[in-house]
Specification:
The chain is an alpha+beta fold. It has one domain: Alpha-Beta Barrel (Multidrug-efflux Transporter 1 Regulator Bmrr, Chain A), CATH 3.20.80.10. The chain contains two helices and nine strands. Strands 1, 2, 3, 4, 5, 6, 7, 8 and 9 form a nine-stranded antiparallel sheet that branches. A hairpin with a 6-residue loop joins strand 8 and strand 9. The longest helix has 15 residues. The protein is globular. About 30% of the residues are buried. The mean pLDDT is about 95.
Length: about 160
C-alpha cells in the first residue's frame, strides 16, 4: 500500500546542478554527486524550516523546453535539477542553475527504499486515474533532510 496525500503548494525555488537525462544516459547520480561535492556554495541560500533545518532537497524535473511538462520518450528524456530548496530571491552562484517550480496541486507518494520504479508506475497507471485526475506536469523527487524520507511529487489536475 502506497502512502498518498494531495497538497497544494506555492511556487518552489530550487538551486542545483542541471543535466539532460536520456534512456541512454541517466545523469541523475552524477548531478547529485556534483551538487553534494560543492554543497557549501549553496548552503547559505537554503530555505529553512522553523526548526532551523533545510526545507528540502529536490530532484526537480522538466521537459527539455523548461516548461515543467512531463518527460518525453516514455518518461526517459528530460531535464533534471539536483538541488536545494531556496528562498525565492536567491541568486545561483556560477555553475549552478535556479528553477522556480510553478504553484500546483501535487499528489505525493512515499517511496520505500528500492521501490522508486514500482511506486512511479503504480501512481501513474492506477492511483492518479482512480482519483479522477491526470498528470499535468513533470514528476519531481523530494527528500526530507531530517528523516531522509523520499517522496515523489506528481503534479495533477482534475480531468
Amino acid at each position: 500500500m502506497i502512502d498518498i496525500e494531495i497538497m497544494d503548494l506555492p511556487e518552489i525555488a530550487v538551486i542545483g546542478k542541471e543535466g539532460l537525462c536520456t534512456a541512454e544516459h541517466n545523469v541523475v547520480r552524477e548531478l547529485w554527486a556534483d551538487a553534494e561535492a560543492h554543497f557549501q556554495e549553496i548552503a547559505p541560500l537554503g530555505q529553512l524550516n522553523p526548526d532551523g533545518l533545510f526545507a528540502g532537497f529536490w530532484g526537480a524535473m522538466s521537459d527539455v523546453s523548461r516548461s515543467f511538462l512531463p518527460w518525453s520518450d516514455g518518461f526517459s528524456r528530460g531535464l533534471y535539477l539536483a538541488g536545494l530548496q531556496v528562498n525565492p530571491a536567491a541568486v545561483p552562484p556560477p555553475g549552478w542553475q535556479k528553477w522556480t517550480l510553478p504553484a500546483r496541486r501535487w499528489l505525493v507518494a512515499d517511496v520505500p527504499p528500492g521501490q522508486y520504479g514500482e511506486v512511479f508506475t503504480e501512481v501513474l497507471e492506477r492511483v492518479i486515474p482512480s482519483k479522477g485526475l491526470r498528470l499535468s506536469g513533470a514528476v519531481c523527487d523530494f527528500t526530507e533532510p531530517i528523516t531522509g524520507r523520499n517522496r515523489l511529487f506528481f503534479p495533477v489536475e482534475e480531468i
